[in-house]
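Consider today's protein:

***
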Amino acid sequence: QLQLVESGGGWVQPGGSLRLSCVASGQTLDYYSIAWFRQAPGKEREGITCIDDRDHSTYYTDSVKGRFIISRDNAKNVINLQMNSLKPEDTAVYFCAARAELLFRVCVTEGPRENDMDVWGKGTLVNVSS
C-alpha cells in the first residue's frame, strides 16, 4: 500500500527558499505519477506541478513556473519540490499526491486534476511572511 509523507514546510521570508520532500513507502515511485497541490487560505486546492512515470513529462502552473522545480530521487524513493523566490501568495498547505495505478499519467496540458489522485499525504504548511 502506497503511503506518502510530506516534510520541509515552515516559515520563510519573501524571496527565500524551501525544499519540500515527499517520502513514499510501500511502493517504488518510478512508474507512478506524482503531483504537488496546495491550498491557500480561502482558496480552492490547486495542482501546481507534477511529474509522470519515468519522468516522461512535467507540468508547472504559471504562478510557479520558473521558481519551483519538481524532481525524483529514485534511490531514496522521494519526490522533492524546490521552491525559490517565495512570495506571500505562496502561503498554503502543500500536499503530495499520487495516482496508485501503474503508468497512469496525470501531467496533461491543463495540469494534474484532484480527482485523478487517490493517495494523499497529510500536508505541510508553508508560511511566507516577514
In short: The longest strand covers residues 18-25. DSSP finds no helices and eleven strands in the chain. The mean pLDDT is 94.
